[in-house]
Amino acid sequence: MASWLLGRSRILTHIKHLHKNLFFFLGPFLNSHGSCSSFPSKTIEPFKCRDAYSPTLFSFSRHESTKSEAQLEEEHDDTEEDHHQVIDFPGGKVGFTSEMRFISESAQKRVPCYCVLDDNGELVKHSNYVQVGKEMGVKMYSDMVTLQTMDSIFYEVQRQGRISFYVTQMGEEAVNIASAAALSPDDVVLPQYREPGVLLWRGFTLQQFVHQCLGNTHDLGKGRQMPIHYGSNQHNYFTVSSPIATQLPQAVGAAYSLKMDGKTACAVTYCGDGGTSEGDFHAAMNFAAVMEAPVIFIIRNNGWAISTPVEEQFRSDGIVVKGKAYGIWGIRVDGNDALAVYSAVHTAREVAIREKRPVLIEALTYRVGHHSTSDDSTKYRAIDEIEYWKMARNPVNRLRRWVEKNGWWSDKQELELRSSIRKQLMHAIQVAETAQKPPLVDLFNDVYDQMPSNLQEQEKLLRKTIEQHPKDYPSDVPL
Amino acid sequence: MNNKFGRLVSLVSKRGFSTSTCVQKGGSEEGLKSLNLCSAINQALHIALDTDPRSYVFGEDVSFGGVFRCTTGLVDQFGKKRVFNTPLCEQGIVGFGIGLAAMGNRAIAEIQFADYIYPAFDQIVNEAAKFRYRSGNQFNCGGLTIRAPYGAVGHGGHYHSQSPEAFFCHVPGIKVVIPRSPREAKGLLLSCIRDPNPIVFFEPKWLYRLAVEEVPEDDYMVPLSEAEVIRQGSDITLVGWGAQLSIMEQACLDAEKEGISCELIDLKTLIPWDKETVEASVNKTGKLLVSHEAPITGGFGAEISASIVERCFSRLEAPVTRICGLDTPFPLVFEPFYMPTKNKILDAIKSTVNY
Q1: CATH of the domain at B298
Q2: Quaternary structure (chain B) (predicted)?
Q3: Which one of A32, A40, A48, A281 is separated from B67 by 20 to 30 angstroms, measured CA to CA?
Q4: Which of B168, B327, B173 is closest to B241 using CA atoms?
Q5: Nearest C-alpha of chain A: how many angstroms from B104?
Q6: B-chain residue closest to A215, CA distance
């Protein structure tokens, strides 16, 4: 253990030397091994340690296993008893040992998550975080409320049959808004589908959200995709696609472009815990590391991939540990703590751009809503669990307590904001519902930059059929 | 992805290709140089990187020149930031390429063998192909070109011989292009790289060294979605692409000795394909034969047959014939039996003409 810590402290010194302000960023990482415990160790109920994490397969002691897991690069010096000789393999020198030791499947203690605010909105003692002023704090809170309100109204509107589908962000408002707040508008976002808060933060209007969900002529996507597949070039927010994790390797390519162009910007991509099981996740992590691409992976570990709990998704200590295997910096953050998310993303961004390297952020959170409006999550999870996260761990309430304590927010403002957002949304829905659908030609264009002859022919044929059987087709699509 | 082999050259049997009857536009006769298909591809890549600073070439082993040597010399001239190896991961290569292209670059990705393109299928089909459409034309990855050597090579077995073009021809939003010769390869590849749509470009690897042709040294492009009549004839129309055209041409020559005049068409771009040229030819000859190496069932030949039957039914004098690969995995020892050979085509030409 001593030698392991020695190796660690050397890395730490090295990094401190290089970038002093990264110290707090690495803090939680170091904390995981109990080497410097300035951060509180929080118990996270639904993510609690399971038997799978305990060493059952091998009889070797935990310390030995952990030790051999540590980076040998720092350990191949002569003072190490076991590593005074090295072998020069492709990829670098490796110390050797006479002892047959297997690396254990996970560390004894789970990687703790970085927190700034406790559930009561109080700053956690000795917390290192990026300061958030009044304007930023209030905007973050307001946008979280806006997102929450938008979700509840859209959910109802879907239930009334006025839109075909919807996905809420309930419980994940902090990951959405606080991560967006920490970015620059020049940063290119390649989202999954549960991050519209990023787009909201960047100025996509409520009306634009509604237009997309209704697929009318004002929808930037021209009515071609299901509701919630937002995208806006103006806001550097790539259009959502349904397949899981496909955006991750694309984000690496986008990041490589930003790097080559010498831009002070990074690519930011999101996915959920389920997405990390996809090949694209692993492809992206590995490419990002090898290409030294300034990309931030924000993984919302919300406990559920539709009905599959994380226990059935992977056996690692969540996602943050996967970064290490790929040679990527990572941090685990309390995703329901807006200030922690903000600080982690803000710092990750600086690192990614300055160091030209990827950063992995695992945000522990909870999907309070159903997977989508096509899902009833009470069929596979306890209502108590949902209620606990909805009430006791609510990220919006937590930030509200903090802004209120700072004297930046009052009950009156709260009422006004919620009622105003509600009114704006109801109005936006009315406007969108009366708008025309996109014209028929939008069925055929944009498949290619120009319409090829087969599509021209098919358009002509279809128009003829419509003339003959007008009742077969929706009347609200202009021909 | 194990067991990929490198150079094929010395092992393959000779399979010649006579040059096209048509001189490509832009290619001045003075600047002609005798090149094989591999060098022609290499020249196109040099030109692409040279003429657009926002172009990149990447893939497995491309840095040292690639297992087929198509990317030779690129890293020396353009640096390892624009020409680079990637990890061994096809979905990563294409995904990365989409992101790079979406930022306004020309992303020229190499998949080492078409047989290994399937891990990237989702990225090609669900992502690249729909990128423009799904965003309402706000975003596109039109700068993406995916190069992949395809087809039989004499000893490639299951995993170094496949012709997977038909899978991609079922995907609106991408283009599929296959050249038949060095001159075509250079001009078509440059067109693909500069076309504002994502393209899968299959290179007939059997011809990398075997097909030699006078190739203009300058920068020229061969238009996409334009088929070419490479041999005029009046009795039957033959349609093919890539390496298969040389086999078909040999069949045409033999048929000619027996008094049958064949018209041979190189489709070049499989989607969106040039129906009009094929239609005009079949309206003239009244007969159609399509040939490809890929298995016959669900092959692109089926699409051509159906379309031409729709368009030329009253003009057809015989059933449309397809001479293609068998519906088996691509075999090793049995390759000579599997292949749509010259005599299979010749027999079909005769029976169609005498129908």
Answers
A1: 3.40.50.920
A2: Heterotetramer of alpha and beta chains.
A3: A281
A4: B168
A5: 9
A6: B136
